[in-house]
């Protein structure tokens, strides 16, 4: 898929086969009665355990497996069982494909081999038996650990390519760092974690030798200090935020002391409040709540421990509860009472309860402090079998029945000309491959599907992500079903652009599509569903149709509620700007600070701070609003801020990158310079300029 010209190939030759590091290739052939055999031993039919034994004898324990046989998808059940036995991904060819060796010098920017004349090794790829076009390998994950997240290798234009860089998997608001040894397990748990408080960023990492273990796709790993981990997490909005570390403390007391020092260094470097379980404890996933709780060394729930930077501004927005969770301080003040449905048959109110009756076996595990640990993930059903509904999908009276919804077929692709209409995201250059025919897909959305359909799906990006597979939403999640007209979607597997680091994990995923903001007029909502797990969807009534829209996410998840793709200022060098701050305050705003290109009018009870802004550290609101003009189906705060006269916005992430040069106070209707100001980073300098907050009284007017 996604190739303009048919590649030159030849018959598969094991002697010329090029191997990929970290991938064990197993050559199989069809035998009697359609069962698979080893070509050198055609009389021995293989079952799942036989295939797994061959892999264990010939490959490394950490390797993924690629099955080199035609029509591999005809044996999906067999190879899914193999993936479960090995605990690693298994790559198979689609049905209707032949395994061929590619002989062209280049394909998709790579070098598949030295060609037939050079005699070098050649890459294998599945070739459609009818169209003679390459097809993508199918990645089968271990059934108990299956997720829609990508695998260790990138599958691109029929080729299997090693990924590069740090091994990272996406969390709802954060990142899961993994190594080759724990990649599959980390991927499964990362998918089961839900979103927490808006200001909470979660990073899953392994503690090792008093530091943080970071893996690389080359198979190597090294221990990072707190400062090194902060540099690695530079794309996350950490300054002034709350950073929760999903880790297990070492048992050695000396390593615990070192790890505590590194957690404190991480807090100082990022400017975030770093939350960890207590020394010797661990963070545990509560499956049915899709949240983390802290446990002590004995396994009892305990409050999280906070590591705060020295110049932290005010108390944290989160509170550690005795049952081991982190919750918003505002959320703790709200009390919600909800009935619990235990049966679909109403009980007879005249019949007294029988105290000797056995406990309800369907009741969930106790999650209180000191209670038993949360249950592990429910095993996935065997392929081809009718799966159990799983936790959270039981039928409650009055609710629609969840039915199994298969993945939607992939649409054909066509390459657009470079002068085709723009897509919206500035980094997405012209000439992309797009869908050539109409198709349907699923877009994850919040629980209020009606609002998402009418006002837009909340996002900080100028695109939405759609999936052909309903398993893209975990149990309890919600999906909009959409219909995409020709040219409305760009397949991530065939993307021809350098994408920002924050979503590079999507590259190479064959069933994921980008819905650019400028093409949303070709995308329409046709329904809504609630996921019951394992591909089962329950329809949600009352979801209106119409064009799919994007609604700017909350200011807590972006800078001033603006998209991540904005126009930055200054374009080069360092420029002068000004900020108005209250004369009496407790520091800088938690979210963002308004800057001016020229000194504003004198305001009583205000300080004027002249700052030096390095290249690209602020958002140019006017230029951003102009860039978004024409994206009629995207609603952001850019135009409203521009009409309000806001010129520049400085996000809290860059507070410490901006230096104070001079400061002024109002005097006789003019700004008078404060002579004793010591130039330095904005957070440190402001603390010495502002007076302590006075006793409660009328609040000054906002600037």
Please give the share of residues in helix: 10-25%
Structural Rg: 28 Å
Q: Figure out the total of helices.
A: 11
How does the overall form come out from the CA principal axes? globular
What does this structure look like?
The protein is of the alpha+beta class. It folds into 4 domains: 9-162, no CATH class; 168-332, no CATH class; 403-552, no CATH class; 557-689, no CATH class. Helices cover 13% and strands 29% of the residues. The strands form 14 sheets. Strands 13-14-15-19-20-23 form a 6-stranded mixed β-sheet, sandwiched between helices. Strands 26, 29, 32, 35, 36 and 37 form a 6-stranded antiparallel β-sheet that branches. Strands 40, 42, 46, 47 and 48 form a 5-stranded antiparallel β-sheet that branches. A hairpin with a 2-residue loop joins strand 13 and strand 14 (174-177). Helix 1 crosses helix 2 (76-86) and helix 5 (226-232) packs across helix 6 (253-270). 40% of the residues are buried. Residues 105-117, 332-397 and 699-703 have low confidence and may be disordered. Residues 378-390 have a biased composition (Pro residues). Residues 338-366 have a biased composition (Low complexity). Residues 338-396 are annotated as: Disordered.
């Amino acid at each position: 898929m996604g190739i303009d010209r048919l590649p030159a190939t030849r018959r598969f030759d094991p002697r010329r086969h090029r191997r990929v590091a970290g991938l064990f290739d197993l050559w199989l052939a069809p035998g009697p009665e359609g069962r698979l055999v080893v070509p050198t031993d055609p009389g021995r039919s293989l079952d799942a355990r036989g295939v797994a034994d061959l892999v264990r004898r010939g490959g490394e324990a950490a390797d993924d497996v690629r099955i080199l046989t035609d029509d591999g998808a005809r044996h999906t059940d067999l190879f899914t069982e193999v993936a479960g036995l090995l605990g690693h991904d298994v790559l198979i060819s689609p049905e209707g494909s032949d395994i061929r060796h590619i002989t062209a010098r280049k394909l998709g920017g790579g070098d598949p081999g030295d060609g037939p004349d050079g005699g070098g090794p050649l890459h294998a790829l599945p070739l459609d038996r009818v169209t003679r076009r390459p097809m993508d390998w199918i990645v089968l994950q271990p059934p108990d650990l299956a997720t829609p997240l990508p695998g260790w290798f990138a599958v691109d234009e029929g080729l299997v390519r090693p990924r590069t860089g740090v091994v990272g998997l996406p969390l709802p608001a954060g990142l899961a760092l993994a190594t080759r040894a724990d990649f599959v397990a980390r991927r499964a748990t990362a998918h089961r974690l839900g979103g927490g408080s808006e200001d909470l960023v979660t990073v899953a990492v392994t503690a090792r030798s008093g530091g943080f273990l970071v893996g690389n796709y080359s198979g190597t790993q090294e221990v990072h200090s707190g400062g090194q981990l902060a540099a690695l997490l530079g794309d996350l909005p950490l300054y002034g935020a709350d950073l929760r570390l999903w880790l297990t403390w070492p048992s050695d007391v000396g390593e615990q002391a070192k790890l505590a020092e590194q957690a404190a260094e991480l807090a100082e470097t990022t400017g975030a409040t770093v939350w960890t379980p207590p020394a010797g404890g661990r963070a545990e996933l509560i499956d049915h709540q899709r949240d983390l709780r802290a446990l002590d060394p004995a396994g009892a729930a305990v409050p999280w421990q906070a590591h705060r930077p020295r110049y932290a501004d005010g108390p944290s927005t989160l509170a550690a509860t005795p049952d081991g969770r982190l919750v918003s301080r505002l959320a703790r003040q709200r009390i919600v009472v909800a009935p619990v449905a235990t049966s679909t048959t109403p009980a007879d109110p005249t019949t007294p309860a029988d105290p000797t009756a056995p406990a309800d076996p369907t009741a969930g595990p106790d999650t209180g402090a000191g209670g038993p640990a949360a249950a592990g993930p429910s095993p996935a059903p065997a392929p081809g079998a009718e799966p159990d509904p799983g936790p959270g999908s039981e039928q409650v009276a009055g609710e629609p029945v969840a039915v199994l919804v298969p993945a939607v077929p992939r649409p054909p692709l066509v390459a657009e000309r470079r002068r085709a209409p723009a897509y919206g995201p500035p980094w997405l250059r012209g000439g992309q491959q797009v869908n050539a025919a109409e198709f349907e897909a699923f877009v994850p959305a919040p629980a209020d599907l009606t609002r998402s359909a009418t006002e837009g799906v909340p996002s900080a990006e100028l695109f939405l992500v759609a999936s052909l597979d309903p398993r893209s939403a975990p149990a309890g999640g919600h999906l909009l079903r959409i219909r995409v007209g020709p040219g409305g979607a760009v397949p991530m597997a065939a993307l021809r652009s350098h994408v920002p680091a924050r979503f590079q994990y999507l590259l190479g995923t064959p069933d994921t599509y980008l819905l650019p903001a400028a093409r949303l007029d070709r995308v329409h909502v046709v329904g809504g569903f609630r996921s019951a797990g394992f591909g089962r969807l329950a329809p949600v009534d009352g979801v209106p149709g119409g064009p799919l829209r994007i609604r700017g996410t909350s200011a807590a998840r972006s800078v001033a509620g603006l998209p991540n793709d904005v126009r930055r200022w200054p374009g080069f060098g360092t420029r002068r700007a000004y900020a108005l701050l209250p004369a009496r305050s407790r520091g800088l705003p938690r979210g963002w600070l308004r800057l001016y290109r020229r000194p504003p009018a004198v305001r009583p009870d205000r300080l004027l701070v002249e700052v030096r802004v390095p290249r690209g550290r602020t958002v140019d609101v006017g230029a951003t609003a102009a860039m978004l003009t024409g994206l009629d189906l995207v609603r952001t705060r850019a135009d409203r801020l521009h009409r309000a006269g806001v010129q520049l916005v400085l996000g809290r992430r860059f507070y410490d990158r901006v230096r104070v040069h001079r400061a002024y106070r109002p005097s006789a209707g003019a700004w008078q310079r404060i002579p004793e100001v010591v130039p330095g980073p904005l957070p440190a300098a402001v603390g010495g300029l502002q007076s302590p907050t006075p006793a409660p009284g009328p609040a000054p007017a906002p600037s």
